[in-house]
Design a protein that fits this description.
The chain is an all-alpha fold and 54 residues long. It is 94% helix and 0% strand. The protein is built from two helices and no strands. Helix 1 packs across helix 2. The protein is flat and about 45 Å long. The mean pLDDT is 91.
Length: 54
């Protein structure tokens, strides 16, 4: 099972590098979308906690 995880990680890394090298603008867009999603999730958790305490 450990080998499978290691191989999957290598595949993801190779894919990420390939995407960055072949299409840097698209890769930047994907990173921005990811960070926006994390930011939105953090804001939602903050609102939930605020309402929970109120």
């Amino acid at each position: 099972m450990g080998q499978t995880k290691k191989i999957a990680l290598y595949v993801v890394i190779v894919f990420a590098l390939y995407t960055i090298i072949t299409s840097p603008a698209r890769a930047a867009d994907l990173v921005q979308i990811g960070f926006e999603g994390i930011s939105t999730a953090a804001q939602a958790v903050g609102r939930f906690m605020t309402e929970l305490v109120s």
